[in-house]
Protein 1
Amino acid sequence: MLLTYPASSGAWEVLNDASSLSFTATQQGASFTGRFDTFSAEVSFDADDPSAGAITGIVAIDSVDTEYAERDDYLRGSDWFDIGRWPEARFVTEEIIATDKPGEFTANALLTLRDQTRPVQMKFTFAKSANDDTWALTGEVALRRLEFGVGQGLWTNTEWVGDAVTINLTLVMKENTDTPPS
Amino acid sequence: MVSLSDRQRFSPLAQLFHWTTAALIVFQIPLAYYMIGLPLSPDKLASYALHKSIGLTVFSLTALRLAWRWIKPPPPRIEGASPLQHGLSQAVHFALYALLFSLPLTGWLSSSAANFPVSLFSLVTLPDLVAPNRELHDALELTHRILAYSLMTLIVGHTAAACWHQWIKRDRLLQRMLPWVRAERE
Ligand code: HEM
Ligand code: HEM
């Protein structure tokens, strides 16, 4: 489920069902993928004027899904995300800059996970779909889970659950027009 | 009398396969019960990773072993074995080979179905064989367990048969699988 924000000029309407937020982590020496099913995002972005843009997101950590219920419950618990105390993660861009390649951008952002807020960098592409009038913002954030305290106690050991985690975000969006699409 | 001729024995490579596999299995099964009893911790993940790597090693060794068995067939059947005995031993050996393949395969499948990655000693990541699926995982886990019980049962029988040949029947069958050959003392 995605929450939609009210229309604002230059803003985008994020299409819930087509968007996704996943992560790739390693355990037992190999990588696996999970996702967060519930998150909301607000995007105002103009590829011709990236520095004026902003992307913010809120993730309901409770919605973590690694396709194995016991592991999900464990991730919700106090050694990992501790959703009783910190149910949400937040992502707020501070600056968006164009790269040398057209359609590719870098966002410097602050990510809050548990009680830690830290700078992260998201590389993303912004492109129109070939099939319809939607656009896709496809981004990747590389982070270290221990910097956010994700994995306490024994789990600060990174031999069997790696420190590096990659977040992959795909926001499928429609340009917000003042006339409702009907 | 002289000892068994080489014709009547398994080749050194076949023996190496046999005893390496036997040693790995004798380690693997207690490891499995140890690991499932551990509370969730890095140690538990480490033990699972080891169990998976050893199991996959057994799988590969068995593939090589059967290829070698095809190149260099086992020695002719031992003298004095009844057709029934021979048939039984063939059946047990066939079942052992089948289990040495199906146990690692069901383990790998069940890990994939639970979205748990499988790597060989953290060196090579193996592909996921099936998409994550809870019901499938539970069925595979049960199958893996039943196959493991079958393997343990057959190993007990297989070892008992080897002992029977050695000490009751005294037909030197064990020497066919041993790297050294004792001189006859009759
Ligand atoms: C623990 C796991 C074991 C496994 C999985 C295993 C498996 C096998 C298999 C598949 C064969 C058939 C070889 C072939 O004809 O291609 C075989 C043969 C044999 N095994 Fe084992 N074995 C195990 C343990 C043992 C032990 C503990 C002993 C002795 C105490 C033993 C003694 C023998 C002997 C003597 C043969 C040769 C039989 C013959 O001459 O035809 N094995 N084993
Ligand atoms: C020769 C090979 C293998 C043998 C003899 C073996 C044996 C066993 C045994 C005895 C158990 C405990 C069964 C129980 O739950 O009561 C077990 C559990 C398990 N095995 Fe294996 N295994 C082998 C290979 C593998 C491989 C290759 C994998 C994965 C790639 C694997 C994954 C697992 C898993 C995940 C469990 C835990 C199931 C649970 O939590 O109940 N096994 N194995």
Protein 2
Amino acid sequence: MNLLKKIQFVLNVNCRQASQLLSDKSERPLAGYERAALRFHLFVCGPCRKYALFLLILRDVMMRISAEPNDAVHLSHESRSRIKATLEAHS
Amino acid sequence: MPEQPATNLTTSDPATWVDAHGDILFRYAVKRVRDRETAEELVQETLLAALQNRDSFSGKSAEQTWFISILRNKIVDHIRKRARERDRFEPTPDETYFDAKFAKKGKWSDAPVGWSGSNLSPDELREFRAALDLCADKLPPALAHVFSLRELDQMDSDSICKVLSITPTNLWTRLHRMRITLRECLEVHWLGDAKTTPAAAKEGC
Ligand SMILES: [Zn+2]
């Protein structure tokens, strides 16, 4: 993309593009002009700031969920016996 | 015949596996596949595979780590298989999906509202998770798979692309789609009334 195109992108970026960039930010390093476009858009757009906040909350909660032990969850008695029987049959 | 060295190069007695590791493996699986029945099957397949490949256990890692690495592969295989079945019925998501979410000139049709403060109290967190559970269940399969791999398993983009055999651009589109779908659903099920406050709805682009 040439410089003029980049400047145009920064100035004209819309919610659809900005929300894609917000999502992409956790997946790949953004290019300089993409970061600039996002910063500029978030400065002027309340709904996208809300969306950015939602993504932060989601990421935070998902990290907690994937890290925590779900100790209350147990294999049922039936499946326990079934798996034991299967293992024994194949031993 | 040379005697086997009496180190920890062999596994413990398979008869003890279910009691010693069953719950841990089950928790690991259920968190990722979000379905008890499938998780039980995966645990059984894992222990069976471990039994049949006992000789390959090197003793370099703990036995449980070894089981989990087998289970992880089983989970990835399971998701890959499901994703492939689904692809036959539902073509790859295309850009038209977003046309309904964004109005003219790319503005939100249904603008995000009500999200404030990222520090949730324990109560809020519990409610958020209940709503998230419900919303994740409602995701269409193509999005549910990327949700499991990316958000629940915290797998990186490259690995997910390999598992699902899709391009990075396709994955990023799906992730974006999954996130805006969750956002809409959570606004209804978690924020609920807060969303209808007129003051909150006024804020524009
Ligand atoms: Zn916006």
